[in-house]
Amino acid sequence: MAFPLRTPLTIFSLVAAVGATAGCGAGTPAAAARPTAPTAATGLGEVACSQTPLVIDLPAAERARVEAALTHGRTLLAHRECSSGASKLTVLTQCELFVGYDYSPLTRREEVVRMHDADAVRAHLPLTGEGLAANLSAELSRGSTLDLALVNVGRFVSRTKTTYADDVPKGCEAANVVVSGISTGAFAMSVGTRAHARAVAEIFAAGASGASQSELVRSTRDGDLAACDGTGRGAEPPAQCRAPLRIDLQPIDPRSRAQAKCEDGATDAYSCDEWLRRALSRGDAAGARAAGTLSLARCRAGQREACRSARMYAIQARDKTIDLEEIERLACAGGDHDACTSHAQNLMVAGKVDDAFALLKSTCFFHDRPSACVLLGLYVREDRVGPPPGAARDRLLANLHARGCQTNSGECERYAAFFKRGIRAEGDFSNMQKIVQTCAEKKIACAIAAGAHALAIGVPRDMSRAKKAWAMHCEASKPMYVSEQRACEMPKVYGR
């Protein structure tokens, strides 16, 4: 049975009024005296806000759309509301995940539910039950029953195990549950009598023959009982035995995927970073605070990977309650070498000059962090650390400026003064090779690329390429030079 996915998408609602004793005649003495009527809850183990509601009274068009989702690899979303003694479910057929269902055939299972009064009909058939209860009230009061036959041959299970808030498509924010499973087969209803308990085949035969007293009853059936025989272990249910009978609902986790993985995984620093970045970019102060606070607690507990997120939060959120110096110290100790530059600066302010000097040298030369090279170069030029003026100091400054050139064109110009004097920096500067290659796409790198070509930092010395890179820098930076009322000329210290 094929159902086109391109039919107009609509919403169908299912209201399960379990225990609806406020129905017809609830206030009469007879209603008070009679025994509690059997309902869907008692007949099929249903409870208020069931995780597995029946959907047999969906209109045929809506059942077709559910089957279309199965055929075309989509997982349906829904919105469920719960209140005392009742639940409301709206399956959003226009809202789907691009994750399909896997089918598992089951041993054929038959079930008959007999509804003896109007309350049971309303509770069991939330869409059509009200009309049926009114239509059949006379027959039910004289001893008739409304009999429902179910034949279940298989079950579709969604491939998605957990769905998070950011998995939900735009425009479907109302969804709070996923249709994670759909039981399939065939069903039929017809009117019987309390004196005669009928089998599944009899109910199907009565419904097919039109023997039912109500047009509504005759219309509430789907599937062919004969087609459900010999279902085997196929990958799909038989074409005429795949009607949706019952759906399984799984709550959507209201958290984002990154937040859930951060909170649930004590060592998942990557997800914590992602959660924090997204919260900061959206201006979600509460989310950023939660991510930063959790990372801070883990950082202090010895999970050094968490210090990176704690430091990010402290800097970008400007949370004055966090001791940034403590976080930078812990982050540096945990291997966050970018934090080591700031930690060394704190050590310098505290007067621990030798410790600051050693940390900056290590961070610059062994961990290749240009920011540490730039800061250490500043301290050396100011005679705050390092060797006294002389050859050793010149070699140190040449190496610091050449490495700082990888992120700061001003450092390139400082290195040029040593280059002209014949003092060359040591190292292969492989990172500079990558920066030069990005000049054509990222013009911001062209000023650095010009210095690299002019001073042979990581690439061969080539003044024609240096001039070309500088021209590209000038074109990209023209507004800045115009506003400053100066010409964009390649630094003379590079040579001509």
Model description:
This protein is α+β, with helices and mostly antiparallel strands and 496 residues long. Among the domains are: 11-251, no CATH class; 275-335, no CATH class. It is built from 22 helices and seven strands. It has helices spanning 29-33, 40-44, 60-71, 118-124, 129-135, 137-141, 200-209, 215-219, 257-264, 269-282, 285-300, 305-316, 324-333, 337-349, 353-366, 370-381, 391-404, 409-420, 430-437, 446-455, 463-476, 478-483; strands at residues 11-16, 75-83, 86-97, 101-115, 144-158, 177-193, 243-251. A hairpin with a 2-residue loop joins strand 2 (75-83) and strand 3 (86-97). Helix 17 packs antiparallel against helix 18 (409-420). The chain is elongated and about 115 Å long.
Identify low-pLDDT runs.
1-48
Task: Estimate what percentage of residues fall within beta strands.
Answer: 15-25%
Mean pLDDT: 82
Could you say which structural class the secondary elements and strand pairing correspond to?
A: alpha+beta
Basic shape: elongated
Query: How many E strands?
Result: 7
